[in-house]
Amino acid sequence: xxxxxxxxxxxxxxxxxxxxxxxxxxxxxxxxxxxxxxxxxxxxxxxxxxxxxxxxxxxxxxxxxxxxxxxxxxxxxxxxxxxxxxxxxxxxxxxxxxxxxxxxxxxxxxxxxxxxxxxxxxxxxxxxxxxxxxxxxxxxxxxxxxxxxxxxxxxxxxxxxxxxxxxxxxxxxxxxxxxxxxxxxxxxxxxxxxxxxxxxxxxxxxxxxxxxxxxxxxxxxxxxxxxxxxxxxxxxxxxxxxxxxxxxxxxxxxxxxxxxxxxxxxxxxxxxxxxxxxxxxxxxxxxxxxxxxxxxxxxxxxxxxxxxxxxxxxxxxxxxxxxxxxxxxxxxxxxxxxxxxxxxxxxxxxxxxxxxxxxxxxxxxxxxxxxxxxxxxxxxxxxxxxxxxxxxxxxxxxxxxxxxxxxxxxxxxxxxxxxxxxxxxxxxxxxxxxxxxxxxxxxxxxxxxxxxxxxxxxxxxxxxxxxxxxxxxxxxxxx
Length: 479
Prior knowledge:
The protein has 22 helices and 14 strands.
């Protein structure tokens, strides 16, 4: 088997248009895969320079393969299994700014550079007041970015056509707004002047984005089989689900420069990211949070098996299509399509997604993902959503601990404060006290949920049903 590099495999040579902060699995399986498709299907014709955002990373591995690697997409596409392998060749080179600072800063001088894309983890977009302009490089990602922008501003004498378009992909809400705020703080801290600030404001764009693709990463179990198929010793294979979505809060003219939609990709340029963020949290994360305790306490361990089950599958459908979807404001056909895609993702035959892995910190998850839906549904329909409220009762029951009917141990995992609260409440043996105590826990909810009309009575009713009949029989009563 031969090594993977540009001597053993073809590699395209294209102008460097994109600086990418981050060399990890997600960016390589999502952003770089998207750019590869843009190059294949449009006239974008651009390559990526990867910058390692922290001192220790994997640019040496990337460069060792001349930045060539394969993406293995797995999942269902309109019900049909997909298990594809694509060699990605869009990364021209990879730099470590801690050992190659001159080469890193020289990126600012390249006239064809137009985009900056990043995924430096949620902690990466942070203002560190200890960073200095003369650091080589600044320790924070926003600091490094301002160093580049200022160098570019100086190199091109404030040329308004040499501004950069910046797409952060970190998993924080309105990531572009947060990054922009950090940039302004560095401009102020480093006294870079009003002229530079004006150039950045008017000639550069920092746009919030929402990214969605599950990327398990390096396929340790299947790597030998994959290498046999591709006939290369690729040590940077990255596995991902087939679904992808990138929502970018930017004007339509940006789409002309970054024509992912013309390549048939699910990349949307929209006036506001917020409704799409809300859609993802509500229709992907929301069902996950309530299906997990219901499935697990019914004897089901894998998300896919829960969806296939004649009873739990109906419960998931009810929560998703009849309840949560009714609380959102996007067009109905868009919501139907997204919810159907979510169910197909849940059914992925290549991923054994354990429901217990979703159960970590279930109460805070319910508070952000499902509670808004409970309130909106009540407001719009004049009644509580049966499935969502049942899901809350299932979480409360899961946190009782003990053993499942088949003897499997129930091991809840949350903050010690929440664990102690539930332990003490269940020790009373009184479901009314359990209900009162959980709903009044302002440290979880930020409010007293006993004030929501009818919620206390319905949660207690469901707790009693689960205690009396068991989870599977209890859930049948609301279907």
